[in-house]
Design a protein that fits this description.
- The complex is a heterodimer of chains A (about 500) and B (about 110).
- Chain A contains 15 helices and eleven strands.
- By secondary structure, chain A is an alpha/beta fold.
- The chains are: A alpha/beta (about 500), B mainly alpha (about 110).
- At the A-B interface, α2, β1, α3 and α4 of A face β1, α1 and α2 of B.
Chain lengths: ~500, ~110
């Protein structure tokens, strides 16, 4: 008998059952990443000062980080093992196919195959005394027998590959000390984890790569990166919001400590800190998604972007600055969240007040220059939100709506024109002076809504392209009142806000 | 010792319930790994099946280890939670006893 069994055994392998089993193991491995994401989120809540402070709380949080880190190591081992199991399935399929072919050829030749795959009962070579037809028959049988033996040899070679894959599939787990179905010592497993070799922070222009990089770090490595490189992590699109929030709050604290007592950066830092403190005190979760004080860029999420089922990104128009306008802009974000929650009670909503571009002033508002820079930034930000959620596991992807107002719609149009599709399900255009992206059908979002009013001259200026005020634009109109002025689309006493909430929640339909 | 030791007992209790749930979920995957390991051996008779079954067993072992650790951490933290409650009640009793003693002292005229 060969080291991998007889040809008859190989022919009888149930490759479909093998593939099914490996598929189930793959699903278990796939579940480990979202499991770890949930564990990490739980650990952060447990370790938060408002839940459990003091030495015991810190040790408890550290225990969960250790557990998460071990889960990452096991997940890596399972993925490596799974790769070999797929190799096993392919080789086993080959082996079975060759074995069946060998048995069929042997039967046709009237021979059998022994346990080592050799043909038994081959007729002797033809002799000179045989008639021509006899010689042909004998030669045909000998050829068929040799074919059977050759196929058996291929089957055995494939089975040998399968055996090697099956053995190799154990190695990643053996390296962690796991060789049995039962539990092993957790401390022993932890000490056997491969040493941390966190890859360098990726370039900021590829949100998908950044998301994969972050998801590939262990919990301990993530915390180390946050401590070592908060400036890089805080601005890296694709990193989860909780991590960016932690990094940016750290940056904010440092800025408040180090900046001179006057100046634009100080004013912005204080405005951001005041808003975060007020909302934290009120028990309303906010996340500091972006903080670039030298550039004057800030983005704050009302709600939890990492778990929200519906996400809105508000893009403001001219003369909106963090130091002067953040309180009002955050109120608008909160109003949109509340309107969405009213439209779909129980829905988890997060709304980003996105000041990720320097809005133009009245003097420069007729120029598309600011939008040319801002469009790609908005596009990357949206890619980052989507990539961060996708990388955290196969959970539901949130519905994402861009709500752009005034010059913000010009920015949205430029985001549409940036490479790649806009990572948004819906686009809401409020008081738009025209989009460079084209008409509604060309805007890369599945749904495009518009709101404009005769009382809002900006909405029919068409400075930068087509607008929802054009009857042929092709958007789904949102309700407005005839007297609705340019800055009143988010007002609670106007009908537009509730409709925006329905869009964000995904319950507005096509009317 | 930290200047601030604060525990939101009910919040912590809720989180520990979630942690236990995570352990249970992983335990279910561990069971699936064990069953699948056996099915690999049935699918591939001979030495290849035996090695495949060992692989499935190792998967199950790894998941068992994580599940067991998760439940162990949850149990330890549950015990800590109980200890906080017990300690607080004990302190309350001690303080109440002390106040009663002082009150009794004051009640005795000199």
């Amino acid at each position: 008998v060969t080291a991998v069994g007889t040809i008859g055994q190989l022919a009888g392998w149930d490759v479909a059952q093998l593939r099914g089993g490996i598929g189930r193991l793959g699903q278990a491995a796939d579940r480990l990443q979202p499991w770890r994401t949930r564990l990490d989120a739980l650990g952060r809540r447990l370790g938060a000062a408002d839940c459990w402070s003091g030495p015991a709380g810190q040790v408890a949080a550290a225990a969960l980080v250790e557990l998460s880190t071990a889960a990452s190591g096991v997940a890596g081992a399972l993925v490596a093992s799974l790769s070999d199991l797929h190799g096993l399935a392919a080789a086993a399929g080959d082996a079975q196919e060759w074995a069946l072919g060998a048995l069929a050829a042997a039967e046709g030749a009237g021979v059998t195959l022994d346990d080592t795959g050799l043909a038994v009962g081959l007729p002797p070579a033809p002799t000179a005394t045989m008639a021509g037809d006899q010689v042909a028959d004998v030669l045909a049988d000998r050829q068929a027998g040799q074919l059977a033996a050759a196929r058996a040899a291929e089957a055995l070679r494939a089975a040998t590959r399968a055996l090697a894959c099956a053995v190799d599939a154990q190695q990643p787990l053996r390296r962690l000390g796991v060789v049995t179905p039962g539990p092993v010592d957790f401390g022993d497993l932890s000490t056997r984890l491969p040493p941390a070799t966190a890859p360098p922070v990726p370039a900021p222009d590829d949100a998908g790569r950044a998301a994969a990089w972050w998801a590939g770090l262990t919990a301990a490595e993530q915390l180390a990166e946050l401590a070592a490189r908060p400036a890089a992590i805080g601005t890296l699109d694709g990193v989860p919001a909780w991590a960016r929030d932690r990094a940016n709050r750290s940056q904010l604290a440092a800025a408040l400590r180090d900046l001179p007592s006057t100046g634009e950066q100080r004013a912005t830092a204080e405005a951001v800190a005041t808003q975060l403190a007020a909302r934290d005190r009120g028990g309303h979760p906010v996340q500091l998604l972006q903080l670039d004080l030298p550039a004057g860029l800030v983005a704050v999420a009302v709600g939890d972007l990492d778990t929200a089922a519906a996400v809105a990104v508000l893009v403001p128009g001219i003369n909106t600055t963090p130091d002067d306008d953040l309180p009002g802009f955050l109120r608008e974000a909160a109003s949109v969240s509340a309107a969405a929650e009213d439209a779909a009670p129980g829905l988890a909503v997060a709304t980003v007040a996105w000041l990720g571009y320097r809005t133009p002033s009245v003097a420069t508002m007729a120029s598309p220059r600011a939008a040319r820079r801002a469009g790609p930034a908005l596009d990357r930000a949206l890619d980052g939100l989507a990539a961060a959620r996708a990388a955290s596991g196969p959970g539901p992807v949130p519905r994402t709506t861009v709500v752009a107002h005034s010059y913000g719609t010009v920015v949205a149009g430029r985001a549409v024109r940036a490479p790649g599709r806009l990572a948004a399900d819906a686009l809401v255009l409020l008081g738009s002076p025209g989009l460079p992206g084209g008409e509604a059908a060309e805007l890369e979002a599945g749904e495009v809504y518009g709101a404009w009013s005769p009382a809002d001259p900006v909405s029919w200026l068409q400075w930068f392209g087509d607008t929802p005020a054009d009857p042929s634009f092709g958007d789904l109109p949102l309700p407005v009142e005839l007297t609705e002025w340019h800055t009143e689309y988010y007002d609670a006493d106007r009908p537009t806000l509730a409709a925006i909430g329905q869009v964000v929640a995904g319950v507005r339909g096509n009317g | 010792v930290s200047h601030l030791i604060a525990v939101q007992l009910d919040v912590l209790g809720g989180l520990l319930a979630e942690l236990r749930l995570l352990g249970v979920e992983l335990g279910e995957d561990q069971g699936l790994g064990a069953v699948t390991g056996a099915s690999l051996e049935w699918a591939l008779t001979g030495p290849v099946g035996e090695e495949a079954a060992l692989t499935g067993g190792a998967w199950s072992g790894a998941l068992t280890t994580l599940a067991a650790r998760t439940l162990a951490v949850a149990a330890t933290l549950d015990a800590a939670l109980d200890a906080y409650r017990t300690a607080d009640l004990g302190l309350a009793d001690e303080i109440a006893g002390g106040r009663a003693g002082r009150a009794g002292t004051r009640a005795v005229p000199q």
